[in-house]
Write a structure and sequence with these properties.
The structure is a homodimer. By secondary structure, chain A is of the alpha+beta class. Helices cover 33% and strands 16% of the residues of chain A.
Chain lengths: 550, 550
C-alpha cells in the first residue's frame, strides 16, 4: 500500500480504518489494481517516477459521508483529491495533482434530486453524468435540453467546475455561468449552501444565483477550497425548430469583417446558437463538404493546393488567392445556428445573410432545418450536442487531429483564449506555427481556426500527443511549457489544463508579483488550514507545501 | 471633528494628515458640512442617535492613491467605507454601515478607460456614471448600448457590485453577470486583477470572465473584501429595430399559464427583452392605458370596481371576474419586447401570440415599433432605459407608489426574490398583504406584480416610507424587519438592502447555523485582518467588532 507523502503509516492505517467505518469497507480502495484506475489514462508521465498516483480511494454515498471523510482527513492530515465522474481526458483524468493523495471519488453520489420542467432547471449530485441526466429527462418525457460537452460522459458538476462548454445558446453554453446554487463541504466538514440555498426552505435556490452578500460560488471552481456536493443548472426548454446556414467568403481579408459581423450577430442574438467558423480552402478535410455549395469543386486532395498552402504565409499568398477564386473554393465559412420558431429562424438567417452581404462575393447555403423534437432517423444524422444529446461519437477528435495524425496513446489539450477578431486568429496562427517549428513539435495544420464556446472570446484547442516513449513525452512536455510561455508573451492565457502544467500556467497570470495567486493562497490557508483538499490544484498549494517547494 | 470609534484622536489626526499627503489637502473632508453630505438622504434614522454618519471623507484620484489610503488606514486601523458615485437611494445612500467610518469616495476616479466598439465592451473606473458613459459613447458615434438602471445617475461599478439590474436583453440586464474583469485594491494595499487581467499584457481581460483558477470576482460584490478600482462591462450592440406587443388575458386563473408561457418564451429567447406583467383590472392606474385595446373601456375610477377589489380575496372573486368579463377589462397583461431585425421581431411576436393563444380568450396588441436608432422625437416618447438611455424620469416611482401614496421624505426598498410562477405571485400577495395589515403598515396595492429584472426569478420591490417623524420611522423599521422574517418563513430572501437591515437579512440566510455567513467571516478575516474595509457591509463584521457585538 502506498502512503501519502508526509503521513506516517500508523496514521494512514488509522485513517483508512476510519474511512471504512464512514463509507463501508467495500468503498475504500487500497489494492494496487483498484488504485491504479485513478491514474490519468493520458498521463504525459507514463512510465516515469513523476506519474501522479493515488494512495487509496474513498467513495462516499452521501454528503454526510463526505463530511466524515473530510473530518477524518483533517484529523490525520491526509491529502485528499475530489473527483466527480467521467474521464477528463487531456486535462488530467482523475489523478491527484499532489501524488499520493487519497482520491475522494464522488461517483456513487449520482442522484438527480430535481428536474423542474416549468422553471427549466436541474439539481444534481457530482456522480451524475450528462448521460444519466439525459436519460432521466427522456424517460419522463420532460421537454428540456441539457447543454452537453463533447464527448458527453462527464459530470455536469465536474465539467462546470472545470469551466467546460457546450454547443447550445450562449446562455447555456458556458457551463459554469449557467449553474445556479451550490452545496459545498468545506475542509472543516461544514456544509455551506450558496446563493438562495443559504436560506432554510428557500424557494429560489436554483432560480437566483447570487443570494445576499458576497457571491462565493466562483471560488469553488478550478480550485481546492471545498468539495461541491450539489449544484443546480439552468436547462434550455426544447425549442420549436432548428435551422442552420453557412456563409462563404472568397478572400483572405474577408476573415476580419466576417468575424466582426458574426460577433455582432451573436451579441445581438440574431443568431442564438454557437457559430462555427471554417476554411474550406485551407482545411483539406473540409473540402469534400463544400462540394454541395459550389458547382466546380476542387478534388479533395489537389497536389497543387497542398503545394500552395505549404508555401503560403499563414494561409495567405497571391497564388493561393488566385487558386481559390479560380476553383471557386471559399477561403472562409461561417455556419450559424438558430433555435426558435421556424419563421423567426428564417427571418434571422435572412438578416444574417443581409449583414454578411456587406462582404463582396459572399455566398450562402441553408444547411439543416428540423422541426423539434428530432425523429429517430434525424438524431442519427446530426451533431447530437447541438440538440442537447450527449454523445461519444466525437471522442475520436481527441485521438486524431491534423496536428496529431499518427495514433498516439493520448493527448494533452493546449487551450489558449484569444480575442474574438480575425486579426487575432491570424496572429495566433503565425505565433503558434512559428513556435511549433521552433520547439520541434508536429506542425499545426496549415491554418487553425478557433472555437466559439465562449460568447465573447475564441478558444484554440490543440492536442499535444502523449506516447509510450518516455523521451518523446519529455520533449512534448517541455514544448507544452514553452508554448504556454509563448502564448503568455502575446497576452493569451489558457483557461484549463492538466496537473502537469497547472503551476506553469498559473505562473503566467503574474500581474503585480502574482497578486492573484497570493490571494488564492490567502483564501486557501483560511478555508483549509491543514491543506488537505486537492493540494496543488490549479497552482494552489497549501502553506506547508508552499514552504517545502520554496 | 467626529472621530471613528476605537481610534484615538491622535491617531486620527495623524491619519488625516497622511491622507492629505496622499490625495491632496483639498480632497480630504472633515468639516461637518462636507461630511454631512455622505449621510443617507433617505435615512430611516433621521434625527436619531443611530443615524449612520461619516467621520471624514477622502477622495483619491487614482488607484495608487487608493493604495496609499488603504495602507494608511491599515496602519492606524481607521475604518473606511468605499463608495463610487450616484445616490443609492432606498438602499442606504453613501452612509457607512459602521457609523463613524471614513468614506473613501471614488467619484474623482471617473475615467472611461476603453470603449471597444467591435468587441462591444467598456472598461471604467468607479466614479464613472451611466450618464458619463452614455455621453462618451454618443459623442463618438459608437453604436453600443449600455444597460442602465432606472434612475440612471449611478455608477456601473457601484450598481453591479450591489447587483443591480436593467431593462435590455437578459444577458445584459443582470449588471453583475455582464461584467468581465476587475481590478481590486485589497486591504493590504495590493492590487489584484481578476480573470484574464491577472496576465500582464492580457488581450482578453474584458472578453473572458473567469481566467484560470478560482474565479474570485463574486466575493467582491455585496461585500467588504476589497476596493474595486476598475471593471469591464459587456455592452449590447445597437440592434436594428425594436418591437413590443402586449398579450391580454381574461380570467384570474390565466395568470398561471401566462407566466409559464412567458418564461418559456424568454428561456428560449423567442422574446429577448424584459417582459413586463400587469393587471389592467386590479391596477387602477393602468386602466386608462388599456382603452386602446378594448372597445368598451371601464372608467378609470369606477366605484363598483374599487368596491369589488376591496372585497376580493387576493384579487379574486366571482363578482370581480364577472365584472372583468362584462366590462371587457383584462385581468392580466404581459408586454414583450423584441430587439433585432424587423422581420425577426415580427416573426417572434407572432410566435409568442401563437403560444399565448393556448389560453382561451387571449387578445393581443402590437405596441411600439421603431427602427433604430430612435429619432429625437421618438426618444422623448419611450421608456429610455429600454433603449439603453439613462434617465431620471422614473425617479418619482420611488416617491409615490400605491403602497406609499402620501409624499414621504424618502423610502426604503424591500426587495424579495420569488419564484417565476403565477402561483408564487398569488402566494406572495396573500402573505405580504396579511403581513402589512398585521404589522400596521400602509397596505399594498390591491394586487402587486413583480418585475422581471432577473431572467429566472421575479423580484418584488416595495417602498417603505421614510418620514421626518421619529416614531413613525421606528414603527416602519420594526415592520420592515418583521417583513424580512415573514418573507424568510416562506423561503423568499431579499437580494439587497440598506445598512439598517443588512444584519437582519443576512441572518435569514441561516442554513446550517449560518455556515455561509461564517464562511464570509473566515474570508474577511483572511483578506482584511485589521477589519478596516467597510465594516458591517452585508452583515460581515470584522473579528474585533464581532467579538464586541457578541
Amino acid at each position: 500500500m502506498r502512503i501519502p507523502p508526509g503521513v506516517s503509516s500508523t496514521d494512514f492505517s488509522a485513517a483508512i480504518a476510519k474511512f471504512e467505518q464512514a463509507v463501508g469497507k467495500e468503498w475504500v480502495f487500497t489494492d494496487d489494481g483498484d488504485v491504479a484506475l485513478y491514474k490519468d489514462a493520458y498521463s504525459p508521465f507514463w512510465g516515469e517516477s513523476d506519474e501522479l498516483v493515488a494512495s487509496a480511494a474513498v467513495a462516499p454515498d452521501s454528503v454526510e459521508q463526505v463530511q466524515q471523510v473530510v473530518r477524518i482527513a483533517n484529523h490525520y492530515k491526509i491529502p485528499i483529491y475530489a473527483v466527480s465522474t467521467g474521464k477528463n481526458l487531456g486535462y488530467g483524468g482523475s489523478a491527484p495533482v499532489y501524488s499520493g493523495s487519497v482520491v475522494l471519488d464522488l461517483k456513487r453520489m449520482n442522484r438527480i434530486l430535481e428536474v423542474n420542467e416549468k422553471s427549466a432547471y436541474a439539481l444534481v449530485e457530482p456522480g451524475v453524468s450528462y448521460f444519466d441526466l439525459y436519460r432521466h429527462i427522456q424517460e419522463r418525457g420532460i421537454k428540456l435540453w441539457i447543454d452537453v460537452p463533447d464527448p458527453g460522459w462527464g459530470s455536469p458538476i465536474g465539467n462546470s467546475l472545470d469551466r467546460g462548454g457546450g454547443y447550445l445558446m450562449a446562455n447555456y453554453r458556458n457551463h459554469f455561468d449557467s449553474h445556479c446554487g451550490m452545496e459545498v463541504v468545506l475542509a472543516n466538514g461544514e456544509i455551506v449552501r450558496t446563493g438562495m440555498g443559504a436560506m432554510p426552505g428557500s424557494k429560489t435556490w436554483q432560480e437566483y444565483k447570487t443570494g445576499f452578500g458576497p457571491w462565493v460560488d466562483g471560488i469553488f471552481s478550478q480550485s481546492n477550497f471545498g468539495v461541491v456536493t450539489k449544484m443546480g443548472f439552468w436547462l434550455m426548454p426544447q425549442p420549436e425548430a432548428y435551422l442552420s446556414g453557412t456563409a462563404y467568403f472568397e478572400r483572405y481579408e474577408d476573415l476580419m469583417p466576417m468575424v466582426e459581423i458574426m460577433t455582432y450577430l451573436e451579441n445581438t442574438r440574431a443568431t442564438n446558437g454557437m457559430p462555427d467558423i471554417g476554411s474550406p480552402l485551407l482545411s483539406v478535410t473540409m473540402i469534400q463538404d463544400i462540394t454541395k455549395a459550389y458547382s466546380e469543386p476542387a478534388p479533395p486532395t489537389d497536389p497543387e493546393l497542398n503545394a500552395l498552402i505549404a508555401k503560403a504565409d499563414v494561409g495567405k499568398s497571391p497564388e493561393l488567392q488566385e487558386y481559390a477564386l479560380r476553383k471557386k473554393i471559399p477561403y472562409w465559412s461561417c455556419k450559424l445556428s438558430f433555435y426558435g420558431a421556424p419563421k423567426a429562424n428564417s427571418a434571422n438567417w435572412e438578416y444574417c445573410q443581409d449583414k454578411f452581404s456587406a462582404i463582396p462575393g459572399a455566398k450562402f447555403m441553408q444547411d439543416e432545418f428540423y422541426k423539434l423534437p428530432l425523429t429517430p432517423e434525424q438524431r442519427e444524422k446530426v451533431h447530437k450536442p447541438q440538440f442537447g444529446i450527449p454523445s461519444l461519437a466525437m471522442f475520436s477528435i481527441g485521438e486524431r487531429t491534423p496536428m496529431n495524425p499518427t495514433p498516439a496513446n493520448g493527448h494533452m489539450w493546449f487551450s489558449p483564449i484569444i480575442p474574438r477578431t480575425g486579426e487575432a486568429i491570424i496572429e495566433a496562427n503565425r505565433v503558434f506555427q512559428e513556435a511549433a517549428k521552433e520547439f520541434g513539435i508536429p506542425v499545426l495544420s496549415a491554418f487553425s481556426l478557433p472555437s466559439c464556446y465562449w460568447e465573447r472570446a475564441f478558444i484554440y484547442i490543440f492536442a499535444f500527443p502523449v506516447t509510450h516513449d518516455i523521451e518523446t513525452n519529455r520533449r512534448n512536455r517541455a514544448a507544452f511549457k514553452k508554448m504556454i510561455q509563448r502564448a503568455a508573451e502575446h497576452g493569451w492565457g489558457e483557461y484549463r489544463t492538466a496537473p502537469a502544467y497547472q503551476d506553469t500556467i498559473m505562473n503566467t497570470y503574474s500581474y503585480n508579483n502574482h497578486s492573484l495567486l497570493r490571494l488564492h493562497e490567502t483564501l486557501k490557508d483560511a478555508v483549509d488550514p491543514n491543506g488537505i483538499l486537492s493540494a496543488g490544484r490549479y497552482g494552489i498549494w497549501p502553506k506547508h507545501l508552499r514552504e517545502r517547494k520554496a
